[in-house]
Amino acid sequence: MLFSLKKTEPVVIEDTSSKDLALINQLNQELAKSIELKETLENALEVIIKRINAQAANVFMIEEKKQVFQCIASKHQAYLEDFEIPITQGVMGKAALNKKCIRVGDVRKDIREIAEFYFDLDNKTNFTTYSVLCAPLLVSGECIGVIQCLNKKTATKLFEEGDRKLLETLSGPAALAIRNAKMAKDLIDKNRMQKEIEIVGEIQKNLLSQNKKHNFPIAGINIPAKVVSGDFYNFSDLGNGKYGFGVADVSGKGIKSSLLMSKASSLYRCLSKTIFSSAELLNILNLEICETVSRGMFVTMLIGIYDSNKKEILLSNAGHEPPLFFSEDKKFSNFEEAGPPLGITSKFKFTEKKISFSNSSMYIFTDGITEMKNETGDMLGPEGFQEFIKKYQSIPNNERLNKIIQEIIKSGRIQKDDLTIVAVDGN
After folding, report:
1. What are the tens digits of pLDDT across the range 372-390?
2. Structural domains in the chain?
3. What's the whole-model pTM score?
4. What are the residues whose beta carbons fall under 8 Å from the beta carbon of 258, sequence distance 6 or more?
5. CA dihedral 420, 245, 329, 356 (to 10 degrees)
6. Which residues pair with 353 in a beta bridge?
7. Dihedral class, residue 36 (left if φ above 0, else alpha if ψ from -120 to 50, else beta)
């Protein structure tokens, strides 16, 4: 007896695990390919909402300094960016503390669950929460935030165990994506900051006077310890055989100090073109800096005018290192007279001192020179600096300063501060 086989359509069995795996792979790819974190996370939340069938979803990060949750991405729940939630509060706080994905039922009926829910957020955002699914974002065992879904769109409005497992699985790549995006942003910000610092450094270099090649009585050199410098020098030909010069050093290091130096140097460059009194210059600069300087900051500065016809120098010192004089008989001496640094008090009035200056050299420097230490911790000191001056005194001032700096650095000393020297040669 022959039997005929009737063709039947194959039974299609929905493989939810395959769908979830495909979803996980999709989200992994989405999260990995972009550092535009907010947009990427919002797209990921939309996918999660559709799969889990939730009303809304959001991502909160932990702000370490304030110890609060801050929303960085949200779908279908508005105004979350305006609020900070203590990390000890609500379901998010519990998930972060226990480092476990939490599934909460009807928060408005179960007293135990009400105690875990942060109702204040609902009140402020005009949103009604019934059920919560919240997973911690863990990177190397550290919780950096949470991802949560709100209100299952079913008759019961309750999330299922499968939803919890899925969100727990998805939280891993989301946490890594957030960490990587933050690291990328920090790197971009760092590079941008570095570029801005380099620009500041270039501006500072342009504010320094350029050394003349032949027969100019003044030369200067500045070697910053970092990209920007807290030191400054300037010199100029005032005409009729007179030359003006100024050297300054700002307290502290970093951008804050360099900005103060930029202000002081700009003021000096502008005012020194019309004011030919070293004391008057310092008095004006002091008043300006006192008005705007941050607490605890100040500027040491020495200003002078060299008159080659009268063979004399007028000097005024605001707390700067005493300049070093080297006479033609190869003896050293210091100009010790000084007032307080600029920015300390607006009431002090600076004076100027007239000094005979013929066939000698004067060296104005910052403390980075004499305080340079060798490998054993010994500072160069004034005596060490004097030895280098003696060694190269016979060559032109421009070359001389380069030789002195090179020799100091090559001697094995470690530069931790800006190095500045200005040499004034009297005929």
Report:
1. 887 777 888 888 899 999 9
2. 35-182 (3.30.450.40), 206-425 (3.60.40.10)
3. 0.58
4. 200, 204, 228, 229, 230, 250
5. -150
6. 315
7. beta
